[in-house]
Amino acid sequence: MTREDAVAVTGLGVRCGAGATTRELWENLLHSRSTATLHAFDDENTVVHPAYPMPDFTPEGYLTPKEVKRTDRSVQLGVCAAMDAVTDAGGLHTPAGRAAVVTGTTYGGVISQEHGIGQPDVLYPARVMPNAGAYWISSKFGITGPSLTLSTACASGTHAVGEAMELIRSGRADTVVTGGHESPFTATTALAFARSGAMVTECDEPARASRPFDAERRGFLLAEAAAFMVLERLDLARARGARIYATLIGYGCTSDAHHLTAPHPDGAGATACMEQALADAGIAPDAVTHVNAHGTGTTLNDLAEARAITSVFGPAAVPVTASKSVTGHSLGAAGALEAVITAMSLHEGLLPPTAHLTRLDPQCELDVVVRPRKLSAGPALSNSFGFGGHNACVVLDSAQR
After folding, report:
1. Which of 76, 107, 180, 388 is deepest in the core (most CB within 10 A)?
2. Of 39, 159, 181, 329, which is the active-site residue?
3. Pairing mode of beta strands 246-255, 147-150
4. 31 is catalytic
5. Which tens digit of pLDDT belongs to each residue from 297-355?
6. What is the 3-state secondary structure (H, E, C) of 280-338?
7. Cα dihedral sign for 122, 128, 129, 133?
8. What pLDDT digit, counting tens, does each position of 195-208 carry?
9. How large is the angle between the packed helices 22-30 and 334-348, nearest 10 degrees?
10. In degrees rounded to 5, what are phi and psi of residue 259?
11. What is the spatial distance between Cα 27 and Cα 30, in angstroms, rounded to a whole number?
12. Is 329 a catalytic site residue?
């Protein structure tokens, strides 16, 4: 299959609890190694829940001490991941005005926001603004083309990747640095999700607490993360002999218009989004070889997504993976992280397992991958569904195709 408007993925970079590099992340995924631990969200250790922090993270070597003072931790994660992605791509090879940045985040600089309430300093507005990551990435590389930020809850990262692809397709950019960043580790955020019933608050084994599609699942584990890609016009990437991880060939974007936080029970919006992405890619459902599910581990979201996947592909008709079993849920960064993982799966020809699945929920008629599995040649779909009924899906294919 050849698509004239396919977009090349030439660089990848990550920062998350499951890996400070793409290689470390990949190895942890393959071996179902979870780094979840009990984490104190406040200095007094009164708000403690299982989570996926990056305890040893430092932006040293990426940001100067002065720049660190001007940025929230979320942005610091994002800048590091984006700079790694550009290095991985061998640099940016288009004029500054033909390059762009598209970022996704749910909460922006929420740590700086919470710490500054009632006593903001002069840098407070610049640290908390959601588009701060897009600014710093643009500034680091001198990118003068479009610089955009999307905030659609847990679909933000996937929307960012999809809209970045559209910038290239429409001719507005030749190269785009795109992804998501999030560091929501504040006491208020943790308490809010805990009280909503969506997040695991108590467990005997934190490392096994994130269990998408398992009959005993109890919710998600909060994570901080950043994940970025370098996207290029396919012809330009080939012309310069770039290493191409995968190609982006389709994008879907819909809304449930059903409930502020709960998904449509039968997954209608998710179904429409997947169908739209496949139609945009010009492929039929039976061409898809893999679905990287949103798979949060919450009762309602997993069931709605399972119904949607079954509606599009049929019962247990396509291999499904749920990366959050190892990475946790990084909100606005999650979709970008899973797009990176999907690109790596295509590049390696291998599906990492869904960790901690001991008994599949009988209501979820899915072929959930529980051991590393060879990936058949063909396109893969990555799903993200967020609060507000925001749905986003991207379709990737192997570079060889």
Report:
1. 180
2. 329
3. unpaired
4. no
5. 999 999 999 999 999 999 999 999 999 999 999 999 999 999 999 999 999 999 999 99
6. HHCCCHHHCCEEECCCCCCHHHHHHHHHHHHHHHCCCCCEEECCHHHHCECHHHHHHHH
7. positive
8. 999 999 989 899 99
9. 80
10. -155, 150
11. 5
12. yes
Residue 90 CB neighbour total at 10 angstroms? 14
| Cβ-proximal residues to 111 (8 Å cutoff; 6+ apart), any chain | 72, 73, 74, 183, 185, 186
> What's the confidence (pLDDT) of residue 46?
94
Strands 367-368 and 222-223 turn out to be unpaired
DSSP H/E element including 81? helix 73-88
Per the rule left: phi > 0, alpha: psi between -120 and 50, beta: everything else, 388 is: left
Distance CA 317, CA 310 (A): 8
- Interval 256-282 mean pLDDT: 89
**Options 39, 49, 264, 294, the catalytic residue:** 294
User: Crossing angle of helices 73-88/132-141, nearest 10°?
Assistant: 40
Token pair 């584990």 in the structure block, residue: 221
Q: Is the pLDDT of residue 158 over 90?
A: yes
- Whether the per-residue pLDDT at 1 is higher than 50: the answer is no
Which of 49, 80, 93, 154 is flagged as catalytic? 154
Of the candidates 58, 22, 158, 64, the one whose C-alpha atom is nearest the C-alpha of residue 103 is 158
CA 239 centroid distance within chain: 29
**What are the pLDDT digits (tens) for 222-246?**
999 999 999 999 999 999 999 999 9
Please provide the size of the chain in residues: 401
